[in-house]
From TrEMBL, chain A:
It is a multi-pass membrane protein. SUPFAM superfamilies: ABC transporter involved in vitamin B12 uptake, BtuC (SSF81345). It comes from the Bacteria. This is Iron ABC transporter permease. The keyword Transmembrane applies. Keywords: Cell membrane, Membrane, Transmembrane, Transmembrane helix, Transport. Belongs to the binding-protein-dependent transport system permease family. FecCD subfamily. It is found in: Cell membrane. Signal peptide: none annotated.
From TrEMBL, chain B:
This is Heme ABC transporter ATP-binding protein. SMART domains: AAA. The keyword Oxidoreductase does not apply. It comes from Ollibium composti. CDD domains: ABC_Iron-Siderophores_B12_Hemin. One of its GO terms (molecular function) is ATP binding. Pfam families: ABC_tran (PF00005). SUPFAM superfamilies: P-loop containing nucleoside triphosphate hydrolases.
């Protein structure tokens, strides 16, 4: 999809511009349809591939024909693998991929910086601290919490950690009713350093088994997907994503600067508030259930901006679809490449995302220096 | 009418604009002139609602401070001195942002072609498909003006005059386009809208302004018609250098400038 843009900004084709009239809306709508098809294909691919030979097609056939009721259905083992292991994993992949990619796009629009990422406003660092605290202190200091919440203790601690970090930053950066995104960014770096130092203390205290657990958590994985986790994180993610279409026009105006967005009639402060809250909720919930999956938030919006332009009315839904599809494919690779073992998904996304990020930086130097 | 009374603006602890009274009437081009750092842009930012201020500013009799952004956007459009862009938008996409509030006042069905018409007006026909960042400074400034024009396409909407607030609209333009843009401003005023422009070029100001507001050190140094304001003692006092205002003989009689003499 990004092929025609590899030549760099000055070499962008007429296609990328949307022709002589500079209107890329039709092109963007087509891309959204194609991405929806792509996501459908990725979901099917993800559902049908895996370490076991369980046939998703057989189960799908049963659903369609209603064979479960009359006893002619596929065996129980296959049904359990598809319905209770692969399907929740696919649904969670869609939710997490969409929320990371959309959050990236919203943050980039808000900070007016194509290299911004949800990690910038302290969500990831805060969530990480919460999760590591539960892993390391779960048997001692935080034992009552773990006893109370059971398997939900870790995701909840991560979610709360991310949200608390964001709220602290928001308070620091807001004066007389105006939030300075520049202050928020700088304070985010300071707060992330502090959270990482605390995380470091916990890592230092951890024993060997805990170290292994938290390493896996930090690399991210969809392996723990259950319907219970989807039931908890899903509504938060869906609600946060549902808010983002209302941000699109405001984020477009914000590309001209905060003052001009205000002159165009955008309530800028409310825009910032809603953007920050929905991003931190979506990312907090995503990180809580899947760990630290990097680079989706940067790579996806960037590729799409090259293909369909930066108009957020199209960029946001396209990011949701593409982010979901990309994470499902990455997850399918993780599950099959070293089967029956599994790679953490963060390794795949970072191994592809890292070089891509460098490539963007090298390529962007031309535009930055303009 | 835009009317400001005893307006002061603080940036940090410094008072940049002090107790200024200001009026801009519909049907007129009102120029704000003065030396660098005299508070022209800051005053304009207060009038646009961008900066918090003390005192009272009313647009068409409505208190600016009480207006929601959308309401203010339907009454006035603002051209800033410079606009940096975060993402690679095309020229058409930038100009279309002017239509965001949906109160352009264009006729039904006209709206979709408005960006092209606005671009033609600022002499950028055929630029719609170009990337904004690829344009020269002067071209970018005219793209922004096209966006601003889209926002208040009709100078009067539902019987209510609307305003263009322009901060140095011609600062990076060649002479031909300076005249093009000032003609657009004057035309907007002639059709019933109001124009407030921060200007540096005193000749352009004399040509186009109906009313001149002179700023010095954050205060109003003078306010009036061009022939009242553009006079030698005031200009010398405000700008700190000796200036002589020239005038064409009233009868239209031919005259010769001594600078044109060349002794052979």
């Amino acid at each position: 999809m990004a092929d025609q843009s590899i030549a760099g900004p000055s070499g962008m084709t007429r296609l990328a511009r949307g022709g002589e009239d500079g209107d890329r809306a039709a092109r963007a709508r087509l891309a959204i349809v194609l991405l929806a098809v792509m996501l459908g294909a990725a979901m099917l691919f993800s559902l049908t591939s895996g370490a076991s030979d369980a046939s998703a097609w057989a189960v799908l056939r049963d659903w369609v024909s209603g064979a479960v009721a009359d006893g002619s259905a596929t065996d129980m083992r296959t049904r359990v693998i598809i319905q209770d292991i692969r399907l929740p994993r696919v649904v969670m992949g869609v939710l997490v991929g969409a929320s990371l990619a959309v959050s990236g796009a919203v943050m980039q629009g808000l900070f007016r910086n194509p290299l911004a990422d949800p990690g910038l406003i302290g969500i990831s660092a805060g969530a990480s601290l919460g999760a590591v605290a539960v892993i390391v202190l779960g048997a001692t200091m935080l034992a009552p919490l773990v006893a109370l919440l059971g398997p939900m203790a870790l995701p909840l601690a991560a979610f709360v950690g991310g949200l608390v970090a964001t709220l602290i930053l928001y308070r620091i950066a807001t004066r007389q009713g105006r939030t300075s995104v520049a202050t928020m960014l700088l304070a985010g770096i300071a707060l992330a350093a502090l959270a990482m130092a605390l995380t470091g203390v916990l890592v230092y205290m951890a024993d060997d088994r805990q170290l292994r657990d938290l390493t896996f958590w930090q690399l991210g994985s969809l392996a723990g997907a259950t319907w219970q986790k989807i039931g908890t994180a899903g509504p938060v993610i869906v609600a946060a994503l549902a808010a983002t279409p209302f941000l699109a026009r405001g984020l477009n105006a914000l590309a001209l600067g905060e003052a001009t967005a205000g002159h165009l009639g955008i309530p800028v402060q409310r825009l910032k508030y809603v953007a920050i809250i929905s991003v931190s909720a979506a990312v907090g919930a995503a990180v809580a259930v899947s760990g630290g999956i990097g680079f989706v938030g940067i790579v996806v919006p960037h590729l799409l901006r090259l293909a369909i332009g930066p108009d957020n009315r199209y960029l946001l839904p396209a990011s949701a679809l593409f982010g979901a599809a990309m994470l499902l494919v990455a997850d399918a690779v993780c599950r099959t490449i070293v089967a029956p073992a599994e790679l953490p998904i963060g390794i795949i996304t970072a191994a592809v995302g890292g070089p891509f990020f460098l490539w963007i930086l090298l390529r962007k130097r031309g535009i930055v220096d303009l | 009418m835009i009317e400001a009374k005893e307006v002061s603006v603080f940036i940090g602890r410094r008072r940049i604009v002090a107790d200024v009274a200001f009026t801009a009437r519909p049907g007129e081009v009102t120029a704000i002139v003065g030396p660098n750092g005299s508070g022209k842009t800051t005053l304009l930012k207060a009038l646009s609602g961008e900066l918090p201020y003390e005192g009272r500013i009313a647009v068409n009799g409505r208190d600016l401070a009480a207006m929601k952004p959308a309401e203010a956007a339907s009454l006035r459009a603002v051209l800033p001195q410079a606009t940096s862009l975060a993402f690679p938008f095309t020229v058409r996409e930038i100009v279309r942002l002017g239509l965001l509030g949906g109160r352009s006042g264009a006729l039904a069905g006209e709206s979709e072609r408005l960006p092209e018409r606005a671009l033609a007006k600022v002499d950028l026909d055929g630029f719609a498909g170009r990337f904004y960042q690829e344009l020269s400074g002067g071209e970018q400034q005219r793209v922004q003006l096209a966006r601003v024009l889209c926002q208040v396409w009709a100078p009067v909407l539902e019987g209510v005059p609307r305003y263009l607030l322009l901060d140095e609209p011609v600062s990076s333009l060649d002479i031909r386009h300076q005249l093009t843009i000032m003609d657009i401003a004057r035309d907007f005023a002639r059709r019933g809208g109001g124009v407030v422009a921060v200007l540096h070029d005193l000749n352009l100001t004399a040509m186009y302004a109906d009313h001149i507001h002179v700023m010095q050190g954050g205060r109003q140094a003078a306010s009036g018609a061009p022939q009242e304001v553009l006079v030698d003692p005031l200009l010398e006092k405000v700008f700190g250098c000796r200036l002589r205002v020239g005038a064409v003989p009233p009868s239209g009689a031919p005259f010769v400038l001594p600078q044109s003499a060349a002794v052979s």
